[in-house]
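Internal ticket - ligand job 464, adenosine-5'-diphosphate:
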Amino acid sequence: MHGFTLEEATSRQWEEFQTTLRGSVSPANWQKWLGKLQPELGATQLTLIAPNEFHRTWVEEKHGKQIESIFHQVFGSEMTFSLVSLSPYLPGSEEEADPPSLEPNVSPSHPSVAEVEPRYETNPSPLFGRYRFENFIQGESNQFALAAAQAVADQPGVSYNPLFIFGGAGLGKTHLLHAVGHHVHEFYPNLLVRYVTSEKFLNDFIDCIRRKRVDDFKHRYRSTDVLLLDDVQFFERKEQILEEFFHTFNTLHQLGKQLVITSDRHPRNFTVEDRLRSRFEWGLVTDIQPPLLETRLAILRRGAEFAPKRVPQEVLEYIASTVSDNIRELEGALTRVTAFAALTHREIDLPMAEKVLGDHGKKNGAPLQALDIISAAADSYGFSVAEVQGPSRRQPLVMCRQVGMYLCRELTDLSLPKIGEVFGGRDHTTVIHSLDKVKRVIRSDRAVFDRVHSLLQQLRKRGG
Ligand code: ADP
Ligand code: MG
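stdout (C-alpha coordinates):
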Protein backbone atom coordinates (compact mmCIF):
# COMPACT_ATOMS: atom_id res chain seq x y z
CA MET A 1 0.00 0.00 0.00
CA HIS A 2 1.27 3.32 -0.94
CA GLY A 3 0.03 6.71 0.16
CA PHE A 4 0.24 10.13 -1.29
CA THR A 5 3.56 11.69 -0.53
CA LEU A 6 4.89 15.20 -0.64
CA GLU A 7 7.43 14.10 -3.19
CA GLU A 8 4.67 13.00 -5.46
CA ALA A 9 2.67 16.17 -5.11
CA THR A 10 5.74 17.99 -6.25
CA SER A 11 6.54 15.45 -8.90
CA ARG A 12 3.16 16.17 -10.40
CA GLN A 13 4.04 19.84 -10.54
CA TRP A 14 7.41 18.98 -11.94
CA GLU A 15 5.70 16.93 -14.61
CA GLU A 16 3.43 19.81 -15.52
CA PHE A 17 6.34 22.22 -15.53
CA GLN A 18 8.38 19.98 -17.79
CA THR A 19 5.53 19.28 -20.18
CA THR A 20 4.68 22.95 -20.53
CA LEU A 21 8.27 23.95 -21.06
CA ARG A 22 8.89 21.18 -23.53
CA GLY A 23 5.76 22.13 -25.40
CA SER A 24 6.95 25.68 -25.83
CA VAL A 25 10.27 24.99 -27.54
CA SER A 26 11.36 23.02 -30.61
CA PRO A 27 12.25 19.33 -30.25
CA ALA A 28 15.86 20.08 -31.21
CA ASN A 29 16.08 22.74 -28.57
CA TRP A 30 14.57 20.47 -25.96
CA GLN A 31 16.83 17.60 -26.78
CA LYS A 32 19.98 19.65 -26.79
CA TRP A 33 19.37 22.23 -24.09
CA LEU A 34 16.33 22.39 -21.88
CA GLY A 35 15.78 18.65 -21.63
CA LYS A 36 19.28 18.30 -20.18
CA LEU A 37 18.58 20.32 -17.07
CA GLN A 38 18.45 18.09 -14.00
CA PRO A 39 16.08 18.96 -11.17
CA GLU A 40 17.05 19.12 -7.52
CA LEU A 41 14.13 19.71 -5.29
CA GLY A 42 14.08 21.22 -1.84
CA ALA A 43 11.11 22.16 0.31
CA THR A 44 10.92 25.69 -1.03
CA GLN A 45 13.32 25.68 -3.91
CA LEU A 46 13.76 24.04 -7.25
CA THR A 47 17.27 24.04 -8.63
CA LEU A 48 17.85 23.27 -12.26
CA ILE A 49 21.32 22.00 -12.88
CA ALA A 50 22.97 22.52 -16.24
CA PRO A 51 25.89 20.25 -17.20
CA ASN A 52 28.23 23.22 -17.49
CA GLU A 53 28.43 26.98 -17.40
CA PHE A 54 28.11 27.39 -21.14
CA HIS A 55 24.89 25.45 -21.08
CA ARG A 56 23.61 27.43 -18.13
CA THR A 57 24.33 30.81 -19.70
CA TRP A 58 22.72 29.79 -22.94
CA VAL A 59 19.57 28.61 -21.22
CA GLU A 60 19.38 31.67 -19.04
CA GLU A 61 19.83 34.05 -21.94
CA LYS A 62 17.41 32.37 -24.28
CA HIS A 63 14.82 31.01 -21.92
CA GLY A 64 15.35 32.49 -18.47
CA LYS A 65 12.17 34.58 -18.51
CA GLN A 66 10.13 31.84 -20.08
CA ILE A 67 11.25 29.24 -17.53
CA GLU A 68 10.57 31.61 -14.69
CA SER A 69 7.09 32.40 -15.84
CA ILE A 70 6.17 28.74 -16.38
CA PHE A 71 7.74 27.94 -13.03
CA HIS A 72 5.58 30.45 -11.15
CA GLN A 73 2.52 29.44 -13.05
CA VAL A 74 3.00 25.82 -11.97
CA PHE A 75 4.65 26.02 -8.55
CA GLY A 76 3.07 29.24 -7.35
CA SER A 77 4.91 32.05 -5.63
CA GLU A 78 6.03 30.23 -2.48
CA MET A 79 8.70 28.30 -4.35
CA THR A 80 11.80 29.86 -5.78
CA PHE A 81 13.95 28.55 -8.56
CA SER A 82 17.54 28.88 -9.54
CA LEU A 83 19.63 27.81 -12.46
CA VAL A 84 23.13 26.61 -11.69
CA SER A 85 25.83 24.69 -13.46
CA LEU A 86 27.67 21.56 -12.47
CA SER A 87 31.02 22.67 -13.80
CA PRO A 88 32.50 25.83 -15.28
CA TYR A 89 32.65 25.99 -19.03
CA LEU A 90 35.77 24.32 -20.31
CA PRO A 91 36.56 24.59 -23.98
CA GLY A 92 35.98 21.22 -25.56
CA SER A 93 34.06 19.80 -22.64
CA GLU A 94 30.79 19.92 -24.51
CA GLU A 95 31.37 18.52 -27.97
CA GLU A 96 28.11 19.77 -29.32
CA ALA A 97 28.43 23.30 -28.10
CA ASP A 98 28.90 26.14 -30.50
CA PRO A 99 32.34 27.61 -31.16
CA PRO A 100 34.48 26.59 -28.23
CA SER A 101 36.37 29.84 -28.49
CA LEU A 102 34.66 31.21 -25.44
CA GLU A 103 36.24 32.20 -22.20
CA PRO A 104 34.57 31.00 -19.04
CA ASN A 105 31.69 33.26 -17.97
CA VAL A 106 31.55 35.03 -21.28
CA SER A 107 28.14 34.99 -22.91
CA PRO A 108 27.98 32.39 -25.61
CA SER A 109 27.45 33.28 -29.21
CA HIS A 110 24.07 32.62 -30.69
CA PRO A 111 23.31 29.06 -31.62
CA SER A 112 22.83 28.18 -35.25
CA VAL A 113 19.54 29.14 -36.79
CA ALA A 114 18.34 25.55 -37.02
CA GLU A 115 18.11 25.04 -33.30
CA VAL A 116 16.34 28.26 -32.47
CA GLU A 117 12.61 27.99 -32.26
CA PRO A 118 11.02 29.75 -35.24
CA ARG A 119 9.36 32.88 -34.02
CA TYR A 120 6.58 33.40 -36.55
CA GLU A 121 6.62 37.07 -35.72
CA THR A 122 4.84 37.98 -38.88
CA ASN A 123 2.35 35.28 -38.17
CA PRO A 124 -0.29 35.25 -35.52
CA SER A 125 -0.57 31.57 -34.64
CA PRO A 126 1.14 30.32 -31.54
CA LEU A 127 2.11 26.83 -32.63
CA PHE A 128 3.33 24.22 -30.20
CA GLY A 129 6.93 23.40 -31.10
CA ARG A 130 6.59 19.73 -30.34
CA TYR A 131 3.41 19.14 -32.32
CA ARG A 132 4.97 18.31 -35.67
CA PHE A 133 4.48 15.52 -38.16
CA GLU A 134 7.92 14.12 -37.28
CA ASN A 135 6.75 13.59 -33.71
CA PHE A 136 3.45 12.02 -34.62
CA ILE A 137 3.56 8.25 -34.39
CA GLN A 138 1.50 6.53 -37.02
CA GLY A 139 -0.73 3.56 -36.23
CA GLU A 140 -3.86 1.88 -37.55
CA SER A 141 -5.94 4.14 -35.37
CA ASN A 142 -4.75 7.44 -36.81
CA GLN A 143 -3.31 6.63 -40.24
CA PHE A 144 -6.18 8.11 -42.25
CA ALA A 145 -6.30 11.32 -40.30
CA LEU A 146 -2.52 11.62 -40.56
CA ALA A 147 -2.46 10.97 -44.31
CA ALA A 148 -5.23 13.50 -44.88
CA ALA A 149 -3.50 16.11 -42.73
CA GLN A 150 -0.26 15.59 -44.64
CA ALA A 151 -2.02 15.90 -47.98
CA VAL A 152 -3.61 19.15 -46.88
CA ALA A 153 -0.33 20.50 -45.54
CA ASP A 154 1.46 19.63 -48.77
CA GLN A 155 -1.03 21.49 -50.91
CA PRO A 156 -3.29 23.73 -48.89
CA GLY A 157 -6.69 24.36 -50.44
CA VAL A 158 -6.24 21.72 -53.10
CA SER A 159 -7.10 18.25 -51.84
CA TYR A 160 -9.71 18.12 -49.09
CA ASN A 161 -11.52 21.24 -48.10
CA PRO A 162 -12.49 21.32 -45.36
CA LEU A 163 -10.65 18.52 -43.68
CA PHE A 164 -12.72 17.52 -40.68
CA ILE A 165 -11.01 15.35 -38.04
CA PHE A 166 -12.99 13.96 -35.16
CA GLY A 167 -12.19 11.72 -32.19
CA GLY A 168 -12.03 11.43 -28.41
CA ALA A 169 -9.93 13.49 -26.03
CA GLY A 170 -6.17 13.09 -26.05
CA LEU A 171 -5.93 11.24 -29.35
CA GLY A 172 -3.88 13.76 -31.30
CA LYS A 173 -6.33 16.12 -33.02
CA THR A 174 -4.65 19.27 -31.79
CA HIS A 175 -1.25 17.77 -32.53
CA LEU A 176 -2.25 17.22 -36.16
CA LEU A 177 -3.64 20.73 -36.53
CA HIS A 178 -0.40 22.26 -35.32
CA ALA A 179 1.59 19.88 -37.51
CA VAL A 180 -0.30 21.17 -40.54
CA GLY A 181 0.49 24.69 -39.37
CA HIS A 182 4.23 24.03 -38.98
CA HIS A 183 4.44 22.30 -42.32
CA VAL A 184 2.68 25.09 -44.19
CA HIS A 185 4.88 27.67 -42.46
CA GLU A 186 7.97 25.89 -43.61
CA PHE A 187 6.96 25.17 -47.16
CA TYR A 188 4.75 28.17 -47.87
CA PRO A 189 6.21 30.99 -45.80
CA ASN A 190 3.98 33.51 -47.53
CA LEU A 191 0.74 31.90 -46.52
CA LEU A 192 -0.99 33.20 -43.45
CA VAL A 193 -1.75 30.32 -41.10
CA ARG A 194 -4.04 30.81 -38.18
CA TYR A 195 -4.55 28.21 -35.50
CA VAL A 196 -7.41 29.03 -33.19
CA THR A 197 -9.51 27.19 -30.67
CA SER A 198 -13.22 27.59 -31.12
CA GLU A 199 -13.36 29.23 -27.76
CA LYS A 200 -10.86 31.86 -28.77
CA PHE A 201 -12.67 32.41 -32.04
CA LEU A 202 -15.83 33.07 -30.07
CA ASN A 203 -14.11 35.35 -27.57
CA ASP A 204 -12.50 37.35 -30.34
CA PHE A 205 -15.88 37.77 -31.88
CA ILE A 206 -17.53 38.93 -28.68
CA ASP A 207 -14.67 41.26 -28.02
CA CYS A 208 -14.95 42.84 -31.45
CA ILE A 209 -18.69 43.28 -31.06
CA ARG A 210 -18.17 44.96 -27.73
CA ARG A 211 -15.65 47.35 -29.19
CA LYS A 212 -17.81 47.82 -32.27
CA ARG A 213 -15.00 46.48 -34.44
CA VAL A 214 -16.74 43.57 -36.12
CA ASP A 215 -14.99 44.47 -39.36
CA ASP A 216 -11.66 43.81 -37.67
CA PHE A 217 -12.86 40.37 -36.80
CA LYS A 218 -14.06 39.67 -40.31
CA HIS A 219 -10.85 40.90 -41.77
CA ARG A 220 -8.71 38.94 -39.35
CA TYR A 221 -10.30 35.61 -40.05
CA ARG A 222 -11.23 36.04 -43.66
CA SER A 223 -7.73 37.06 -44.70
CA THR A 224 -6.32 33.78 -43.44
CA ASP A 225 -4.92 31.29 -45.97
CA VAL A 226 -5.07 28.27 -43.74
CA LEU A 227 -7.54 28.30 -40.88
CA LEU A 228 -7.03 25.60 -38.26
CA LEU A 229 -10.08 25.55 -36.02
CA ASP A 230 -9.89 23.31 -32.96
CA ASP A 231 -12.78 21.74 -31.02
CA VAL A 232 -15.64 23.08 -33.04
CA GLN A 233 -18.16 21.23 -30.86
CA PHE A 234 -17.82 24.30 -28.66
CA PHE A 235 -20.02 26.21 -31.13
CA GLU A 236 -22.98 23.92 -30.69
CA ARG A 237 -26.18 25.78 -29.86
CA LYS A 238 -24.42 29.14 -29.96
CA GLU A 239 -26.45 30.61 -32.78
CA GLN A 240 -24.70 33.88 -33.27
CA ILE A 241 -21.21 32.49 -33.55
CA LEU A 242 -22.45 29.68 -35.77
CA GLU A 243 -23.88 32.27 -38.10
CA GLU A 244 -20.65 34.23 -38.12
CA PHE A 245 -18.58 31.13 -38.64
CA PHE A 246 -20.85 30.07 -41.49
CA HIS A 247 -19.94 33.27 -43.32
CA THR A 248 -16.25 32.94 -42.52
CA PHE A 249 -16.36 29.42 -43.85
CA ASN A 250 -18.05 30.46 -47.07
CA THR A 251 -15.67 33.31 -47.72
CA LEU A 252 -12.58 31.20 -47.16
CA HIS A 253 -13.89 28.28 -49.10
CA GLN A 254 -14.85 30.40 -52.09
CA LEU A 255 -11.37 31.88 -52.15
CA GLY A 256 -9.87 28.41 -52.13
CA LYS A 257 -8.40 28.86 -48.65
CA GLN A 258 -7.82 25.74 -46.59
CA LEU A 259 -9.89 24.89 -43.53
CA VAL A 260 -9.01 22.14 -41.10
CA ILE A 261 -11.53 21.57 -38.36
CA THR A 262 -11.50 19.22 -35.38
CA SER A 263 -14.26 18.07 -33.12
CA ASP A 264 -15.02 15.41 -30.57
CA ARG A 265 -17.76 13.94 -32.78
CA HIS A 266 -18.88 13.39 -36.35
CA PRO A 267 -20.70 16.32 -37.99
CA ARG A 268 -23.82 14.19 -38.27
CA ASN A 269 -24.03 14.19 -34.49
CA PHE A 270 -23.90 17.94 -34.31
CA THR A 271 -26.83 20.08 -33.33
CA VAL A 272 -26.29 22.75 -35.94
CA GLU A 273 -28.25 23.89 -38.94
CA ASP A 274 -28.11 21.55 -41.88
CA ARG A 275 -26.46 24.12 -44.10
CA LEU A 276 -23.40 24.22 -41.84
CA ARG A 277 -23.40 20.50 -41.12
CA SER A 278 -23.38 19.72 -44.81
CA ARG A 279 -20.46 22.10 -45.32
CA PHE A 280 -18.47 20.25 -42.69
CA GLU A 281 -18.93 17.18 -44.86
CA TRP A 282 -18.01 18.85 -48.15
CA GLY A 283 -14.41 17.83 -47.99
CA LEU A 284 -13.18 14.83 -46.06
CA VAL A 285 -14.41 13.65 -42.69
CA THR A 286 -11.99 11.33 -40.95
CA ASP A 287 -11.66 10.00 -37.43
CA ILE A 288 -8.92 9.16 -34.97
CA GLN A 289 -9.43 6.09 -32.81
CA PRO A 290 -7.68 5.14 -29.57
CA PRO A 291 -4.24 3.67 -30.32
CA LEU A 292 -3.59 -0.05 -30.25
CA LEU A 293 -1.01 -1.50 -27.89
CA GLU A 294 1.80 -1.44 -30.42
CA THR A 295 1.24 2.24 -31.18
CA ARG A 296 1.07 3.06 -27.50
CA LEU A 297 4.41 1.37 -27.02
CA ALA A 298 5.92 3.25 -29.94
CA ILE A 299 4.70 6.55 -28.50
CA LEU A 300 6.17 5.70 -25.11
CA ARG A 301 9.45 4.59 -26.63
CA ARG A 302 9.73 7.93 -28.37
CA GLY A 303 8.88 9.75 -25.16
CA ALA A 304 11.45 7.72 -23.23
CA GLU A 305 14.21 8.96 -25.53
CA PHE A 306 13.86 12.35 -23.90
CA ALA A 307 13.70 11.03 -20.36
CA PRO A 308 16.54 11.88 -17.98
CA LYS A 309 16.87 8.21 -17.01
CA ARG A 310 16.74 4.97 -18.93
CA VAL A 311 13.27 3.45 -18.96
CA PRO A 312 13.37 -0.36 -19.16
CA GLN A 313 11.23 -2.08 -21.77
CA GLU A 314 9.11 -3.87 -19.15
CA VAL A 315 8.20 -0.53 -17.63
CA LEU A 316 7.13 0.80 -21.03
CA GLU A 317 5.02 -2.30 -21.52
CA TYR A 318 3.48 -1.91 -18.13
CA ILE A 319 2.55 1.71 -18.79
CA ALA A 320 1.19 0.85 -22.24
CA SER A 321 -1.00 -1.82 -20.69
CA THR A 322 -2.37 0.40 -17.91
CA VAL A 323 -3.32 3.46 -19.93
CA SER A 324 -5.18 2.70 -23.11
CA ASP A 325 -7.47 5.31 -24.52
CA ASN A 326 -5.87 8.69 -24.05
CA ILE A 327 -2.40 9.55 -25.31
CA ARG A 328 -2.15 12.59 -23.07
CA GLU A 329 -2.61 10.31 -20.06
CA LEU A 330 -0.18 7.83 -21.53
CA GLU A 331 2.49 10.51 -21.76
CA GLY A 332 1.54 11.78 -18.32
CA ALA A 333 2.07 8.33 -16.82
CA LEU A 334 5.54 8.08 -18.35
CA THR A 335 6.49 11.55 -17.16
CA ARG A 336 5.25 10.76 -13.69
CA VAL A 337 7.48 7.73 -13.45
CA THR A 338 10.56 9.48 -14.83
CA ALA A 339 9.97 12.55 -12.68
CA PHE A 340 9.61 10.41 -9.60
CA ALA A 341 12.88 8.65 -10.39
CA ALA A 342 14.68 11.92 -11.00
CA LEU A 343 13.43 13.51 -7.82
CA THR A 344 14.22 10.53 -5.64
CA HIS A 345 17.52 9.82 -7.40
CA ARG A 346 16.56 6.24 -8.19
CA GLU A 347 16.74 4.08 -11.25
CA ILE A 348 13.46 3.23 -12.91
CA ASP A 349 12.17 -0.30 -12.47
CA LEU A 350 8.86 -2.11 -12.60
CA PRO A 351 8.02 -2.05 -8.87
CA MET A 352 8.59 1.69 -8.81
CA ALA A 353 6.38 2.23 -11.86
CA GLU A 354 3.67 0.09 -10.33
CA LYS A 355 3.82 2.03 -7.15
CA VAL A 356 3.79 5.45 -8.78
CA LEU A 357 1.03 4.58 -11.23
CA GLY A 358 -0.89 2.44 -8.79
CA ASP A 359 -2.11 5.57 -7.12
CA HIS A 360 -2.43 7.42 -10.38
CA GLY A 361 -4.76 4.81 -11.78
CA LYS A 362 -7.07 4.88 -8.82
CA LYS A 363 -10.08 6.84 -9.88
CA ASN A 364 -12.10 6.41 -6.70
CA GLY A 365 -10.98 7.57 -3.34
CA ALA A 366 -8.68 10.45 -2.71
CA PRO A 367 -5.02 9.67 -2.21
CA LEU A 368 -4.18 9.09 1.39
CA GLN A 369 -2.48 11.95 3.10
CA ALA A 370 -0.75 12.19 6.41
CA LEU A 371 -3.54 14.37 7.72
CA ASP A 372 -6.17 11.74 6.96
CA ILE A 373 -4.12 9.31 8.96
CA ILE A 374 -3.62 11.64 11.90
CA SER A 375 -7.29 12.42 12.01
CA ALA A 376 -8.27 8.73 11.87
CA ALA A 377 -5.90 7.91 14.72
CA ALA A 378 -7.10 10.92 16.71
CA ASP A 379 -10.74 9.89 16.20
CA SER A 380 -10.05 6.39 17.27
CA TYR A 381 -8.59 7.56 20.59
CA GLY A 382 -10.99 10.46 21.05
CA PHE A 383 -8.50 13.29 20.57
CA SER A 384 -8.38 16.19 18.16
CA VAL A 385 -5.77 16.53 15.41
CA ALA A 386 -4.40 19.58 17.20
CA GLU A 387 -3.84 17.55 20.36
CA VAL A 388 -2.02 14.85 18.44
CA GLN A 389 0.22 17.49 16.88
CA GLY A 390 0.54 19.40 20.12
CA PRO A 391 3.19 19.26 22.85
CA SER A 392 1.40 17.31 25.60
CA ARG A 393 3.02 14.02 26.66
CA ARG A 394 0.30 12.54 28.72
CA GLN A 395 -1.02 9.06 28.11
CA PRO A 396 -2.95 7.83 26.20
CA LEU A 397 -2.31 10.81 23.88
CA VAL A 398 1.30 9.73 23.40
CA MET A 399 0.20 6.25 22.37
CA CYS A 400 -2.27 7.73 19.90
CA ARG A 401 0.49 9.86 18.37
CA GLN A 402 2.82 6.87 18.16
CA VAL A 403 0.18 4.76 16.46
CA GLY A 404 -0.40 7.59 14.01
CA MET A 405 3.28 7.68 13.11
CA TYR A 406 3.30 3.93 12.67
CA LEU A 407 0.33 4.14 10.31
CA CYS A 408 2.05 6.88 8.30
CA ARG A 409 5.08 4.67 7.95
CA GLU A 410 2.94 1.77 6.76
CA LEU A 411 0.68 3.70 4.44
CA THR A 412 2.77 6.44 2.90
CA ASP A 413 6.21 6.99 1.50
CA LEU A 414 6.93 9.88 3.83
CA SER A 415 10.46 9.94 5.16
CA LEU A 416 11.05 9.83 8.91
CA PRO A 417 11.83 13.57 9.15
CA LYS A 418 8.67 14.35 7.14
CA ILE A 419 6.58 12.21 9.47
CA GLY A 420 8.08 14.07 12.40
CA GLU A 421 7.21 17.32 10.67
CA VAL A 422 3.53 16.53 10.16
CA PHE A 423 3.22 15.35 13.74
CA GLY A 424 3.90 18.80 15.05
CA GLY A 425 7.55 19.29 14.14
CA ARG A 426 9.02 16.37 16.05
CA ASP A 427 12.50 15.03 15.57
CA HIS A 428 13.08 11.98 13.37
CA THR A 429 14.62 10.11 16.31
CA THR A 430 11.30 10.53 18.11
CA VAL A 431 9.66 8.95 15.09
CA ILE A 432 12.06 6.00 15.14
CA HIS A 433 11.41 5.52 18.83
CA SER A 434 7.65 5.62 18.27
CA LEU A 435 7.76 3.04 15.50
CA ASP A 436 9.77 0.66 17.69
CA LYS A 437 7.40 1.22 20.54
CA VAL A 438 4.29 0.42 18.49
CA LYS A 439 5.91 -2.67 16.96
CA ARG A 440 6.67 -3.94 20.44
CA VAL A 441 3.27 -3.13 21.88
CA ILE A 442 1.23 -4.74 19.11
CA ARG A 443 3.08 -7.96 19.76
CA SER A 444 2.11 -8.01 23.42
CA ASP A 445 -1.12 -6.03 23.71
CA ARG A 446 -4.09 -7.48 21.87
CA ALA A 447 -6.24 -4.35 22.21
CA VAL A 448 -3.61 -2.15 20.58
CA PHE A 449 -3.07 -4.77 17.91
CA ASP A 450 -6.79 -4.80 17.07
CA ARG A 451 -6.99 -1.05 16.99
CA VAL A 452 -3.99 -0.65 14.69
CA HIS A 453 -5.22 -3.44 12.47
CA SER A 454 -8.66 -1.94 12.07
CA LEU A 455 -7.24 1.55 11.43
CA LEU A 456 -5.01 0.11 8.75
CA GLN A 457 -7.94 -1.57 7.06
CA GLN A 458 -10.14 1.45 7.29
CA LEU A 459 -7.45 3.74 5.86
CA ARG A 460 -6.47 1.33 3.13
CA LYS A 461 -10.05 1.26 1.95
CA ARG A 462 -10.21 5.02 1.95
CA GLY A 463 -6.96 5.33 0.03
CA GLY A 464 -8.72 3.41 -2.75
P1 ADP B 1 -6.62 15.96 -28.67
O1 ADP B 1 -6.51 17.31 -29.28
O2 ADP B 1 -7.18 14.95 -29.60
O3 ADP B 1 -7.34 15.99 -27.36
P2 ADP B 1 -3.77 16.19 -28.47
O4 ADP B 1 -3.44 16.50 -29.88
O5 ADP B 1 -3.74 17.31 -27.52
O6 ADP B 1 -5.16 15.44 -28.36
O7 ADP B 1 -2.78 15.03 -28.01
C1 ADP B 1 -2.56 14.73 -26.64
C2 ADP B 1 -1.11 14.40 -26.44
O8 ADP B 1 -0.82 13.17 -27.08
C3 ADP B 1 -0.18 15.42 -27.05
O9 ADP B 1 0.92 15.58 -26.19
C4 ADP B 1 0.25 14.79 -28.35
O10 ADP B 1 1.53 15.21 -28.73
C5 ADP B 1 0.24 13.34 -28.02
N1 ADP B 1 -0.08 12.49 -29.18
C6 ADP B 1 -1.30 12.24 -29.68
N2 ADP B 1 -1.23 11.42 -30.73
C7 ADP B 1 0.07 11.14 -30.90
C8 ADP B 1 0.80 10.32 -31.83
N3 ADP B 1 0.19 9.62 -32.77
N4 ADP B 1 2.14 10.28 -31.70
C9 ADP B 1 2.77 10.96 -30.74
N5 ADP B 1 2.14 11.73 -29.84
C10 ADP B 1 0.82 11.83 -29.92
MG1 MG C 1 -7.25 19.12 -28.59
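Auto-summary: The two ends are 10 Å apart (CA to CA). Residues 53-75 form the longest helix (23 residues).
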